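User: Just a sanity check before I run the rest of the batch. Below are the C-alpha cells for the first item. I only need the designed sequence back.
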C-alpha cells in the first residue's frame, strides 16, 4: 500500500491509489438505503468511516494472505495478485480514469510480492527455523514496515504538489455588478443555540462522493456548454470572471436531509447568471435537461425550465466573500435556488450538456432518485434542543424553515396535541433563503412535545406524513420532547 501511494503521488493522481480507488468504487456500488444510513449516522464523517473500514478489511485480508504463505508462498502471491487486480479494476473504472491509473496498484502488488518473498525466505532458511531466523524475520518485518510508512508518507507529500489551496488563496474575485439585497436586520433570531442565518464556509455541510477532493486549477479550468445548442460555448476562468457577476443569498439543501436534520446551509454566492450563458449558446427546441459534470466525474441533471424561469441560477465562483472552498467546488459550481443539491448544485463543474431527460440520465437519477426534485417545505425546532430540561415559565421556542424559491409565509407550532399557534417570522432578503422563526411559550412543568409546521408561498402547509429521503426528499413534521422543571 505504501509503494502504491508513492506511485500515485509520483503520477500526480492521488485518487488512483488502490485504497481510494476501491473506496470510490464502493461508494458507487453502495445501495441508496445504505448510503442514507451512512449519511444519517456519520454525516460528513462518512468518508472517514468508509476508509477506516476499508483499512480494517485490508488488514484482515493481509493477515489471511500472510498465514496462507507460511508453508506455501505461492498461495500468498496468488492472494496478492487478486488484491492487486481489484485495485487495478477499481482504478480503471473510475469515471475520470486514465490508463496509467492502473500503475499504482501494479507497483503496490509487485512491492507486496517482493516483501512476501523476502519475509518467507528469511523465515524458512535452508537450515530450518531457529532463534536466529526468528530474529531476522522480526528485523526484516520492521524494516519493511518503516519502508512502507516512509513510501506512503512520501506519496502523500508528492500528491500535495497538485493542491490548489495556494492558487485559491492568491485569487482575487471581482466585485459583483449586482449586489445582493442586504440581509435585513432581525433575520437572525437572537436565542442561544440558534444557527447563524448565514452559514460560514467552515460550518457549511458537505455532501459529495469524492474521497479525494478534486484539485482544479482555475488556469486550466474551462466550462463547455454544448449539446442541443446553436453555438457551443467554451469559457475560461478569466472569461467567467469577466462576465457581469451577481451576488445572491441562497439556501442549499440536500435530498438526504431527514426531518429535523441539518444538511442545509445558507450562503452569499457570487456568480454568473446561468440563464445568460445558455441564451448565449442558444438552446434548441426539444431540450429539457442540463446534464452537468464535475471534474470528479459526477453528473447531475437539472430541469432546463427551472434554470430559465427567471430564478437566480448561478455558475458560482464565490461563497461568503471568498473564492469557493475546495470542498465546495473550487473554482466553480452551480447553484440553483429551489432544487435539491443532487439535481442542481454541481461542484467543480466543467461541462454543461443541453439535452433531454429521454436521452441522458445522471448519477443519482440512474439510481432511482427523482428527475424533478424541488426542495420540499421544511421546518425545524432548533431551540430548545431535544430532551432539554427547561425552567417553567417563559421559554423561547425557535427554529429554521425553508421552501426555497416559493418562500416560507407561515410557521405554526404546537405543544402536545394543543392548538396550532402562529410563530413570529424573521425577515428575509427573498424567497430563496431559509427563514428563522420564534415563539414564546409559557411552559408548565412536565414532559412536553413541541411540534412545528410551515406553509410556503403557494399556500400549502407541510404535510404530516412521514416519508424517507428516497426518492425525492423527506416529509414529516419535526418534534422535540423537552422536560419542564
Ligand atoms: N461534483 C459533485 N457535485 C455535487 C455532488 C457531488 O457528489 N459531486 N453532490 C451534490 C449534492 S448531493 C449536494 S446536496 C450538494 C452539496 O453541496 P455542498 O457540499 O457544497 O454543501 O452538492 C452537489 N454537488
Ligand atoms: Mo445531496
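Assistant: Here's the designed sequence for the first item:
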Amino acid at each position: 500500500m505504501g509503494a502504491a501511494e508513492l506511485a500515485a503521488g509520483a503520477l500526480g493522481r492521488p485518487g488512483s491509489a488502490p485504497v481510494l480507488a476501491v473506496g470510490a468504487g464502493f461508494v458507487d456500488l453502495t445501495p441508496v438505503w445504505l448510503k442514507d444510513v451512512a449519511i444519517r449516522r456519520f454525516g460528513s464523517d462518512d468518508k472517514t468511516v468508509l476508509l477506516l473500514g476499508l483499512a480494517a478489511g485490508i488488514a484482515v485480508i493481509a493477515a489471511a494472505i500472510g498465514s496462507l504463505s507460511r508453508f506455501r508462498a505461492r498461495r500468498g502471491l496468488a492472494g496478492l495478485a487478486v488484491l492487486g487486480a481489484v485495485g487495478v479494476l477499481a482504478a480503471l473504472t473510475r469515471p475520470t480514469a486514465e490508463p496509467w491509473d492502473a500503475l499504482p496498484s501494479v507497483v503496490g502488488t509487485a512491492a507486496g510480492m517482493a516483501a512476501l518473498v523476502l519475509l518467507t525466505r528469511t523465515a524458512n532458511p535452508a537450515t530450518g527455523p531457529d532463534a536466529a531466523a526468528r530474529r531476522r524475520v522480526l528485523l526484516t518485518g520492521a524494516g519493511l514496515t518503516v519502508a512502507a510508512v516512509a513510501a506512503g508518507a512520501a506519496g502523500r507529500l508528492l500528491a500535495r504538489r497538485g493542491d490548489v489551496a495556494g492558487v485559491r488563496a492568491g485569487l482575487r474575485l471581482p466585485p459583483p455588478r449586482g449586489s445582493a439585497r442586504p440581509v435585513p436586520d432581525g433575520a437572525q433570531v437572537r436565542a442561544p443555540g440558534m444557527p447563524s442565518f448565514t452559514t460560514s464556509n467552515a460550518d457549511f455541510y458537505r455532501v459529495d462522493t469524492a474521497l479525494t477532493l478534486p484539485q482544479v486549477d482555475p488556469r486550466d479550468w474551462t466550462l463547455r456548454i454544448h449539446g442541443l445548442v446553436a453555438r457551443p460555448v467554451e469559457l475560461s476562468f478569466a472569461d467567467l470572471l469577466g462576465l457581469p457577476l451577481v451576488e445572491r443569498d441562497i439556501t442549499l439543501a440536500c435530498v438526504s436531509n431527514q426531518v429535523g436534520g441539518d444538511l442545509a446551509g445558507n450562503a452569499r454566492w457570487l456568480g454568473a447568471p446561468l440563464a445568460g450563458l445558455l441564451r448565449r449558446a442558444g438552446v434548441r427546441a426539444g431540450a429539457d435537461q442540463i446534464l452537468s459534470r464535475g471534474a470528479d466525474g459526477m453528473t447531475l441533471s437539472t430541469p432546463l425550465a427551472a434554470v430559465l424561469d427567471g430564478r437566480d441560477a448561478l455558475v458560482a465562483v464565490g461563497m461568503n466573500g471568498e473564492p469557493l472552498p475546495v470542498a465546495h467546488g473550487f473554482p466553480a459550481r452551480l447553484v440553483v435556488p429551489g432544487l435539491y443539491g443532487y439535481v442542481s448544485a454541481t461542484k467543480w463543474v466543467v461541462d454543461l450538456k443541453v439535452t433531454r431527460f429521454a436521452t441522458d440520465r445522471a448519477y443519482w437519477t440512474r439510481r432511482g432518485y427523482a428527475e424533478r426534485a424541488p426542495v420540499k417545505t421544511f421546518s425545524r425546532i432548533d431551540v430548545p434542543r431535544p430532551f432539554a430540561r427547561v425552567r417553567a415559565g417563559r421559554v423561547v421556542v425557535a427554529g429554521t424553515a425553508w421552501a426555497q424559491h416559493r418562500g416560507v409565509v407561515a410557521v405554526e407550532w404546537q405543544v402536545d396535541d394543543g392548538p396550532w399557534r402562529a410563530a413570529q417570522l424573521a425577515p428575509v432578503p427573498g424567497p430563496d433563503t431559509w427563514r428563522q422563526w420564534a415563539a414564546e411559550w409559557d411552559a408548565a412543568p412536565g414532559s412536553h412535545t413541541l411540534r412545528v409546521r410551515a406553509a410556503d408561498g403557494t399556500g400549502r402547509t407541510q404535510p404530516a406524513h412521514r416519508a424517507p429521503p428516497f426518492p425525492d426528499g423527506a416529509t414529516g413534521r419535526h418534534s422535540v420532547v423537552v422536560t419542564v422543571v
